Amino acid sequence: MASNSDGGDQSAVVLKCTDPHQPEPDSDYSEIEISTAEICSWDFPTILTHQIIVVKASRNRLIEHSSYFRGLLCGRFRESILDCVSIKWNLETFMIVLKFLFGFPVDVTSTNFLPLFEAALFFGVEMLLLKCKAWLIDLSSQEGICSLQQLDNLIHIWRFGVQHANDFIPELCTSYLARNFMWVMNCNSFPCIPWNLLVSCVKHPDLTVDSERHLADSLIAWLASNNEQVERWHNTGDDCSGILKEIRISLLPLWFAAGKRRCCYFSKLAEESIDATLYLMTRPSTSMMNVSGDVDSRHFKIRLTQYTKKVDLSGCPQMNSRILLMSMLPCSYSTDLMLTKVVKQYSISLEWTDGDHCQNSSALLPTLSFEAVEEVDISNCPRLPLEASIECFCKSFPSMKIFKAAHHLNFKMTKLVQLLQKCPLLEEIDLAVDISPVIPSQVSIVSSSPAISLRASTISHEINSYPWPASELYTTIPLLANVTKLTLEGRVDLSDYDLKNISEICASLFYLNLRGCITVTDTGISVLILRCVKLHSLLVCDTSFGHNSALALRSGIPNLNDFLTLHVGKNHAKSLASEFQVLHVGGCRGVDETSLSKLISETPMLKSLCLRETLIVDDTLYSFLGSSLEMLDVSDTKVSSTALAHIVSSNPGLYCLEAKGCRNLFQQKSKMEDGDIPSVQYSCEEWCNELAKTCKLEEIALGWGFSCCSLEALKPAIAALKVVTVGLGASLGQDAVELLPTICPLLEEVILYFQVISDCVLINIMESLRHLQVLALCYCLELLLLGCRLLNSDSQRIISTGWPGLISIHLEDCGEVTRNGVASLFDCKSVEDMLLRHNGPGIQKNFILDAALLMPMLRKLSLDVCDAVEGDFDLPNFADRYFLSIVSIARCKPQRCALDLQKLRRTPVHKETLVLVWDSKNLTRTVIKERV
């Protein structure tokens, strides 16, 4: 209890307090006298304005609660008989300690912990020491970063503990940083972490990272930021790079390891990682039987702790069922021969089954449970059996809410219901695959296997028999799943029947992505919309979304929460569209302009709208009444600058605008007849000026009419631009392109179509844009690389050694790059998307098979028969394709060149393209007229 007196003792002591770090007191002696008898009324701000604080305090109270004063005032020191004791300490800190000594509460914070702890140590205030220790223990045991929001504070606390040989402080700091390493590595002060603290964190058993890649990235960044210190250690014989050996290189994504082959700190380990990945990929999971013997199995185990919230295994083609199982088993697994045998048998069964036959075996395995894990990402892990992995996840990650498994073809959509049943807490699922280039509404199909036109005709009678209106339909649907976000992009094996099942068990859906799902019908989509009444984000680009679906969005659907209490007339109910935030219908030719205009007029809450390649005109944009748009795509439509300016002026938060391919943008007047809407046609510069007044853009894509003057006019709007696409019809010129790094220094992606580019401009872009990640130069026919007018086969070696971590390579009409084969490109192990066309007839017949084998991440491949050394390519069967999902092979026919009649020279002209598309069921072969 707080004391309001000097304790009633007859003897008191005067404490004359000064701050040793402050200058000598002024001549007028800025001094104040106070007494602990009046401690309740101390005015701290006023007291601390004085340079000398004289405190009359109870001698007995000080002796009772402070070993410092006990020794000083009760011992044989000369001060023990004095009535005045000089105290030289930080005034604010000592006053807080004094208040604590006299029974008043003290709040310990991350900023005052060290001063209080140091003062408590010096003055021997045991109770304050215990309070500080309890605060640090409690705080370091909590999840997240709590109030320890400054890494600097933690570093100071750790240093203090090391300097004062206080073991519990360094241990608590190390444990806290290890558990929150994902936060630590993203702090600006991360390079300032002392070496010993960093080593302790990395070796701590509670080290928690989303993936091994994040750990490797952070350590490389630390070494690079402390290069001078590293050099000094190297010169003295110390090898600080040993910390990198803590990284489990066998679990690194292939693209990451390939990209680090030129890193001075990591090049050797990167090569070892690539070798380990390829070794694991070319052998079944049972080849790892020696892992528990001669090899340290720890390096093959996914890093999981009780604090792990996210498990990111994406991009690891070496990931297999054996590695997954080992990570979920207790440490005793390696010494238990019986358990090892069970795991081996279970791994073999996983290699040859779809997961249904493994449930009994999995029940025998003592897998651990990691309750904190909420998100799992196994995208681009082609050797990991998806359905069998789900069996493992639902047991070891019972709290999983987010599941990402993009680019897994071998997952039958009929298993989706089982996934939702096994993981009832799931809220977000991503099962996207690459979108097929064969979009029926955009290409002319010459011939196709039956699968390309497959429709769910078996349930047409069910769909047609659904009751109407919608309220009679959805009120009987049980809410079986918690899923709010579902991504099925590119799934050509998705049917209307699947949509029906989804709508029945996922009535809580907020977000649905069906982009490129060409096998579902307008009717199927509309039925799902009517059932999922909470839907506010719908991405259906390049699908059969049409009149029925648009009508379903506009249908009056009451709020289910109020359905039983409110008596809302059917004609007065809000439409589902009225609450929509995201609507992407690009490429959907099945819906006419009138239906789109009516739909858009009922979506005032939209934040993201994609209408590319649709039949919209100006009336459609004028019908939009919202003011919250952040993203708008009207590429390849007939809209004019006036209508687009109308949208831009009403939506100041717009940060992404795509309008390339709009031939009418600056060529004709608006056809709007409403007198309230201005019909004045803007020039491109005038329109850009209007845009600059309203928006701060991060992404922009323009084509026809876009020029150097337009770029100048846009300056105020694009200072923070990150992505720029300049399409057909734009004429920036070299001067404007050269200005890009100055006007837009934050650019991350630069994509230029049909622009004149010189080598000096290209070098300027590469050197000046420090954040650049993607540079695409499409049909820039004047491109000169380092002064060479034509690329040759040596360019392959430059590409593979200069950018070893490439995931996409597109080379078309690039001289003689493939004249002598493509051996060097095989060194780009992490390539996922490759296009080689008209670069020289040197590609071997078995190239597709070799590419699939030697580039384990390759999913999309585009070739031209013109480049085949034997005039054709061998096609892979279902098993030999490995990770390939789309192969496009273009064919050309010779055509006589009109400008060279004397020699009758013939030039190749595109004839048709063979497209191979694999899904979870079979292979579809399609011949189309277009080049894709």
Largest beta sheet, briefly?
A: 15 strands, parallel
Biggest sheet, strands in spatial order? 5-6-7-8-10-11-12-13-14-15-16-17-18-19-20
What structural class do you assign from the helix and strand content? alpha/beta
Q: Which stretches are poorly predicted, pLDDT < 50 over at least 5 residues?
A: 1-5, 289-295, 451-479, 559-572, 668-678, 783-790
Give a short overview.
The model is unreliable at 1-5, 289-295, 451-479, 559-572, 668-678 and 783-790 (pLDDT under 50).
Structure description:
This protein is α/β, with parallel strands linked by helices and 932 residues long. It is 32% helix and 13% strand. It has a 15-stranded parallel beta sheet with strand order 5-6-7-8-10-11-12-13-14-15-16-17-18-19-20, with no helix packed on it. It has a seven-stranded mixed beta sheet with strand order 9-26-25-24-23-22-21, with no helix packed on it. It has a four-stranded mixed beta sheet with strand order 2-3-1-4. α23 links the parallel β11 and β12. The N terminus is likely disordered.
Which features does this protein show?
33 helices, globular, disordered N terminus
Write the layout of secondary structure elements.
Blueprint: E1 12-18, E2 31-35, H1 44-47, E3 52-58, H2 59-65, H3 67-74, E4 84-88, H4 91-101, H5 113-123, H6 126-141, H7 151-163, H8 168-179, H9 181-184, H10 195-203, H11 212-225, H12 227-235, H13 254-259, H14 267-281, E5 310-312, H15 321-328, H16 337-352, H17 359-362, E6 375-377, H18 386-396, E7 402-404, H19 416-422, E8 428-430, E9 445-448, H20 460-464, H21 471-474, E10 485-487, H22 496-505, E11 511-513, H23 522-531, E12 537-539, H24 547-554, E13 582-584, H25 593-600, E14 608-610, H26 618-622, E15 631-633, H27 641-650, E16 656-659, H28 684-694, E17 699-702, H29 708-713, E18 723-726, H30 733-743, E19 749-753, H31 759-768, E20 774-778, H32 794-802, E21 808-812, E22 833-837, H33 847-854, E23 860-864, E24 886-896, E25 906-918, E26 923-928
Parallel strand pairs: 1-4, 2-3, 5-6, 6-7, 7-8, 8-10, 10-11, 11-12, 12-13, 13-14, 14-15, 15-16, 16-17, 17-18, 18-19, 19-20, 21-22, 22-23, 23-24
Antiparallel strand pairs: 1-3, 9-26, 24-25, 25-26
Helix pairs in contact: 2-3, 4-5, 5-6, 6-8, 7-8, 8-10, 15-16, 15-18, 22-23, 23-24, 24-25, 27-28, 30-31
